[in-house]
Fold this protein.
Amino acid sequence: MVVRRQRSAREPRPSMFRALANRNFRIWIIGALLANIGGWGQRAAQDWLVLTELTNNDAVALGFSLALQFGPILILGPFVGPFIDRFPGRIIIFWAAVIETLFGIILGIAVLTGVATLGLVYALALGLGIVQAIETPTRQIFVNELVSKDNVPNAIGLNSMMFNSSRLVGPALAGIGISLVGTGWTLLFAGLSLASAVIAISMLRRSELHTVLKALKERGQFQAGLAYIRSRADLLIVLTMLFVVGTLVFNFGIFSATMAVVEFGLGAHDYGFIMSALAVGSLVGALLVARSSRPRLSVITMAAASIAVGGLAAALAPTVTTFVVLFPILGFGAVLMVATINGYIQTTTDEIYRGRVMAIFSTLLMGATLIGSPLAGWVANAFGPRWAIGVAALGGVVATIVALVWMRSSHNISTMDTVRSAFARSSTDLSDTATQVITITERRP
């Protein structure tokens, strides 16, 4: 039986943008937004460069450049955690942003001067991938230095909203730029915009940064991080759910393109409209995370369930209109789940292990997507795009079952308790059994 806490009055609903009251966070997120728009624009322009200007529509060359950029995190990701846990995030992000800006400017100038080659693109993509393998998990945990602990979930939600907004705006601006001024100028402007992160980091007031405990240099830090994760059954569960969803669900480009072209016979304009609709669903999921007072495993579970529902509905959508209406549910559930897992890990993990755990988080998410993309493409080719989306729905089902079975077997939490916890309006509405037991666990190996 679940015993509810007594309350005299309902707690006020937390503000969706409360983390923006912090000056450092405002500066950081504005700089990150501009840099991310440039980063997504640079990626789109680079893809166009490889596919149409340096090769004759060679998809293999394009795939190789993407593998060089995103592959390093699979190899380096798990091992950068001890480094992140030892050094200030501000310094790591600053120098990473400087290097990324230089790489972007070099590529833009090379294209404008006519000396760009496929080899240069490959070299810069590999260098960028190595830098981002270190910078990505560092950037995710840096919010702990920008805002108070109570505002970390809100800051993570706003970061997710910023990321999805830039993912929508960046490629669109790149497309306009390529058509108006050409690929070279577009790449140069995108590279220069990456300096926004450098400027933002430089403007932060160091005296207002929140102190975060850092690990001392010692042997066996990587193994200690793995031991810490193994000692936390809840972390093992959410990371397992993350890997399942990352593998089977985060293949939105394949789903959108194949449904638009193969299933409905649409053109590029309609494909862009489908991607925009998906981005709207993603933004709604990020806003819900920002609105939440604290991340809960029950919300992660219900988000996985919404992936299953949205994926099945989109796979069965009979017309383009119904597909555009239903497909965003898949993006909503995926972003809500991943952003909540991000917040859950950061708010329940000991400070000295946070970098190592988030490095595993980033590796699993990126690695799973690299594994899942060929699988989704094969299913779409062999059985049709609807089946590929159906596999994504299956991923949501598997992730939901994993969470529900663990909560029932380990904490005797029923499915209805999980649902009530996920939809509770405030922390006073939450039962001790359905929430606290899951987060108050032994946190050291």
Summary: The domain at 227-445 is CATH 1.20.1250.20 (Growth Hormone; Chain: A;). The longest helix spans residues 351-383.
